[in-house]
Design brief:
The protein has 295 residues and is an alpha/beta fold. The chain has a domain at 98-235: P-loop containing nucleotide triphosphate hydrolases (Rossmann fold). 46% of the residues lie in helices and 11% in strands. It has 11 helices and 6 strands. A 6-stranded parallel sheet has the order 1-6-5-2-4-3, with helices on both faces. Strand 3, helix 6 (162-174) and strand 4 (180-184) form a beta-alpha-beta unit. Helix 1 packs antiparallel against helix 3 (54-73) and helix 1 packs antiparallel against helix 11. The chain is globular and about 70 Å long. The termini are close together.
Length: 295
């Protein structure tokens, strides 16, 4: 696992979105909880008009969790719906530069090592990169090709038809220059044999370890004759650390049934306090995050 720091721009954006969404989604619920803790007989009456229905709140919270993960990916990965109006998207600290994302900078360092030929006359290794978000796929593709002009970064996501996807896969397998394939988990997680890859990068984490493992297994296929190195990127002091802990816990419960995804229905069962704790995951400004790497 690679634990990275957010840049100052990412921190500013993360905190702005966090505050905005807490105020909007959980404000009324938090007030209701306060009144209930005081034992007020009028708590229900006082907050009934402002309380957000559980199903609506759940969808909003899930949307917010994804927004915070997108900020961890890169400021430009955040959609306009969640962009705070007080911050300018055109500011230099939010530009497409890889230096504006701790993860992006670390990914380019990983690729520098993986794509470099090990011996004279021998091509570098091939890399699979997984993310949950289509816009992140496109941003990674643009960044990688700019950083490594001799490398073609291919992409597969839900916007491509079956024929286009198959073309991308065949190019990744057969063309030396096509050494990076970026995929969304939904399109690249099941049924593909991509044993030419010797590195798998989970650029962001989903809530289900089984889904991640299925994606990783694309490289662990018949015909693989090299060790496959798995890299997982996590932003320190953010929701992603809590998510990484949850994934480790679920992975240890091998005998239990793990749901395929976290859905609005799941989140609707969370208590108000649990939701507040999840969204209030604070930023921890430490000097040097640990960098642990697992295969």
């Amino acid at each position: 696992m690679h634990t990275v720091m957010l840049t100052s721009g990412q921190q500013k954006l993360y905190e702005a979105v966090q505050k905005k969404e807490l105020d909007r989604v959980l404000g009324a619920a938090e007030e209701r909880l306060r009144l209930e803790q005081l034992g007020s007989d009028t708590a229900e009456e006082a907050t009934s008009s402002a309380t957000i229905p559980a199903s609506v709140r759940a969808k909003e919270v899930l949307s917010t969790l994804h927004a915070l993960q997108q900020i961890c990916n890169h400021p430009q990965a955040l959609g306009s719906k969640h962009w705070p109006p007080e911050l300018s998207r055109q500011a230099p600290e939010f530009s497409k530069s890889p230096e504006n994302s701790g993860k992006m900078a670390r990914l380019l360092a990983l690729l520098e090592e993986a794509l470099s030929p090990r011996d004279a006359g021998r091509e570098g290794e091939k890399v699979l990169i997984f993310t949950q978000y289509v816009h992140t796929v496109q941003l990674l593709q643009w960044t990688i090709e700019k950083a490594f002009p001799s490398t073609k970064a291919l992409a597969i996501h839900g916007g491509l038809g079956l024929i286009e996807r198959e073309e991308q896969i065949q190019r990744f397998k057969s063309e030396p220059r096509c050494s990076v394939l970026i995929m969304t988990l939904g399109t690249g997680g099941v049924g593909l044999n991509l044993a030419v890859a010797s590195h798998v990068v989970h650029y962001d984490r989903c809530w289900n370890p089984a889904k991640e493992n299925q994606a990783t297994d694309r490289a662990h296929r018949i015909g693989q004759n090299r060790t496959v190195v798995v890299h997982r990127l996590v932003s320190q002091g953010t929701l992603e650390e809590r998510l990484a802990e949850e994934l480790r816990r679920k992975s240890q419960l091998a005998q239990e049934v793990i749901p395929s995804d976290v859905t609005p229905t799941d989140i609707a069962t969370f208590s108000v306090q649990e939701l507040m704790d999840l969204l209030k995951m604070g930023l921890q400004h430490s000097e040097a995050p640990p960098d642990t790497r697992s295969q």
